[in-house]
Amino acid sequence: MHPSIAATLLVALNPLPLLAFPTLSSRGVEKRPSAVSAKLAWDALLGKRGPATASVALDGPPCDMSLAKMPSAPSPLPPPSAGLTLSHVVVGRGTQNYTCASASDAPKAAGALASLYDASCIAASYPSLLAAMPPVALDNSLPKPVSTAKASKNGLTPALAGTHYFTNLTTPFFDMDTALHAYGRGGFAKVAGTPAPEGAPVGPKGRGNGSVPWLKLGSVSADEGWQEVYRVNTAGGQPPSSCEGMPKTFTVEYAAEYWMWKRA
């Protein structure tokens, strides 16, 4: 597999965050991360530095993705197909997009737009920390893109892995070929879905209409890249039930984990 950008989390400028990150208990079970550690990890992926923030180290050894275990959906989704192996795990942060034809209609989905942040090594080493990151990402404002030049000047490179968007109303597309790496790209179609579990975040700061469903997507591309993508641990993104009082087009902020599977 390609080396993950988020190869190692290093504490910058202040040793205090080291205490906040998950550790293993004497029985080898990962301790529950604090909200502070999840926020530190999210800031690290964004390339932020501060008195109590972490930075992301580049060019580390590839993570052992066999250690990463994808969360189980409340109503199980079909498992990854035989012969596939986990390639990347990313946190998506952006918007679900909707349209309204009239006030009496229900909003209709019109795609999504999100930035993707490489969290592969967090998935392999700190699964409970990863699970805490979509809600934290949702409760913080949409990230502003950081130029490679600016990041390099600050001694940081954010783990921005690519972009997720739709090429039409039914084809989600993932583009993770950038100036820094060539992880892959491709279009997908929905294979199966299940509602987000009870208690999933409803929206930023607890204001919203619920979390979008968990999904399994299958490739519609002819290349040998990713074959299946799962959207899990969703946070926010659901529209109101009615178009009453809504504009013809609007967006709802969301975050989610995307697990990307390729041929072995």
UniProtKB/TrEMBL annotation:
Keyword Nucleotide-binding: no
Keywords assigned by UniProt, alphabetized: Signal
Extent of the signal sequence: 1-20
InterPro entries: DUF3455
Protein name: Malate dehydrogenase
